[in-house]
Amino acid sequence: MTTEELVKRLEEASAAYYNGEAIMSDAEFDALRDQLIEQAPDHPFLKVVGAPATDSAWEKRTHTTTMLSQDKVNTKEEWEHWAKKMQSKKVALSHKIDGATVVLTYADGDLQYAVTRGDGFEGDDITPNVLKMQGVKTKLDRPFTGDIRGEIVLPFTAFDEHFVPLGYMNPRNSVNVMKDQKDKNGLVKYLKVIPFEVVSPETNGDIQTEEDMEKFVKELGLNYVDTWYMDADQVWDFFEQFDRNAVPYLLDGMIARICDIAEQKAMGFTSHHPNGSVAIKFEAEGAQTTILNIEWNLGLSGRVCPVANIEMIELAGAKIRRATLHNPDFIAEHNIEVGDKVFIIRANDVIPKVISLIAKGDSDIGTMMPTHCPKCEAELVKEGAHLTCPNESCEGRVFGTMMKWIKVHKLLGFGRTRMRDIVAAGINTPDKLYSCTQEELAAAVNSTRIAEKLKEELEKAKEVELGKFLAGLHIDHLGRKNGKRLQDKFRTLKAVLEATPYHFAEVPGIGQTAEAIWTGLDEKMPLIVALLEQVSIKEVEEEVAATSNALDGKKFCMTGLRKINDQPIADMVYANGGKVASGVSKGLDYLIVKNKDKLTNKLKKALDLGVVLLSPEEFLEMINHG
């Protein structure tokens, strides 16, 4: 697999994971990441933590301290190798909760706001939702100024009683959906925040060990993640004997931290993780079962995918009756038929999937590959490992196109169930969403009040960015990233539509997908024309033309600030003949830093690479005096 292919798969998996829709197991993700480290150890993806703050109605907030991820170990040998780096041998071992991280910021004991992890630098302020969750105090039992980091979880009992009846598939997905949406169903109150870390300059004297940290948090009147304190040589035996099924919420491993905080900090950190702690990951939980029958479902992309109905098993606290069989090639390669015994795992403890054949059954039913679409009965075509419906008018593909537009443009209120009603009423293309009357929408959703709110949401989304307009067309290989690449290169829709596959192929990141994107745009021309009658595309701001050569082609990046004296730094760089980089790399000449004493990831990497640091004042001096 090429580096580009590796990164694409990792980016897709990372985005899906942080949206609660994991598409591969932790083990698969880690294996791909390890392969990327081997092939391209300096690739920018390896510096990424989390996912970008969502393009939502929530206000964005910058974290006071960057939130890093965790390095991981999978074997006893890897654990022993990590433990050898410790001077002391005492370890704090705690649950690695599989939920969603949140940062609670307090001032003098009063809650100021609650922010999601986001990309580690910036997250969404979801305070209104967090105030309804269990385990959160608006006023602490004693004064405290700083951050309490915690994990939002959904206990299994609450999930089974309140979420399963509404069609939610698993606790983790439920957490990620509910934390970000308005609490229209009154379900947020069943979520719980479990603190696991304190970040505050005020606590240096009070917190010298991990045990002190647990005591400190509990004195504030909050709960704390379950933690055990032991010698390093006891950790692996404890981990192997630990019963994750006895815990009332999802775990995907344990976190081991050096108990002495000073030593922990002295270990330093990379741009991805601290060196003083490490995650010990559970293997994906699996079990044997028997395939009762196989059904073929049409997905939003037009692919017809096999799903096995199985004898019920219980994995990671969930009752499993269905599991994906991936694609026809997987079935053929493993010779899987109805009646066979197979091994099932839950990828990320979320997605049940068949991974191997255990034993052949006695059934002579076999596995019949479908030849026609289950929705429109069009003859299926084989594309790679998949069977695909080629009919653009197919009910399933039409619904997929609608949901793609909704998802890309973050239109609130248009969930799948509601969208099925809307499509069934004949409002079946994105342009018709905008052109239909409020009365037509009210008839579709059976509510005048809801229709009014939906129309208001659509009105707010009538001016769209070019990249998102393209990504919302539901074209293979043309998602948000490639949409943004085409926007940056061609700047207008007219230029995009006039380009040839050759021009697309020249855009970095597009490469071999150029022909497919070009063909897809040609096929979507009727939709494009119809949409342009309903929405307008924002003009792409032109780069400021250079009026001096004071910076003479030098490359600049910024950390901690974007403007100086209300003037965008990027504009000043361009106006003086310089270039702007989005990240720190070997080719960077200068990093403009708001605070040289605050060690951000960009600053640390710049120091490692020997990049020259500039204060805002030094940058202005450079411009004014060359």
Summarize the topology.
Elements lengths: L2 H16 L7 H14 L20 E3 L9 E2 L2 H8 L6 E8 L2 E8 L2 E7 L5 E3 L2 H4 L15 E8 L2 H8 L7 H10 L11 E8 L10 H10 L7 E5 L3 H7 L9 E8 L2 H6 L10 E5 L4 E13 L4 E13 L2 E7 L3 H7 L6 E7 L3 E9 L21 E3 L2 E3 L6 H14 L7 H9 L5 H6 L2 H8 L2 H13 L2 E2 L1 H6 L8 H11 L2 H6 L2 H5 L8 H10 L1 H8 L3 E2 L17 E5 L3 E2 L2 E2 H7 L3 E2 L9 E4 L7 H9 L2 E3 L1 H10 L1
Parallel strand pairs: 2-11, 19-20, 21-24, 21-25, 25-26
Antiparallel strand pairs: 1-6, 3-9, 3-10, 4-5, 4-7, 7-8, 10-11, 12-13, 12-15, 13-14, 13-18, 15-16, 17-18, 22-23
Describe what this molecule looks like in 3D:
The protein has 626 residues and is an alpha+beta fold. It has 5 domains: 1-48, no CATH class; 53-281, DNA ligase/mRNA capping enzyme (D-amino Acid Aminotransferase, Chain A, domain 1), CATH 3.30.470; 286-388, Nucleic acid-binding proteins (OB fold (Dihydrolipoamide Acetyltransferase, E2P), Beta Barrel); 395-537, no CATH class; 555-625, Rossmann fold. Helices cover 34% and strands 23% of the residues. Strands 12, 13, 14, 15, 16, 17 and 18 form a 7-stranded antiparallel beta sheet that branches. Strands 2-11-10-3-9 form a 5-stranded mixed beta sheet. Strand 15 and strand 16 (351-359) form a beta hairpin. The protein is globular. The two termini are 47 Å apart.
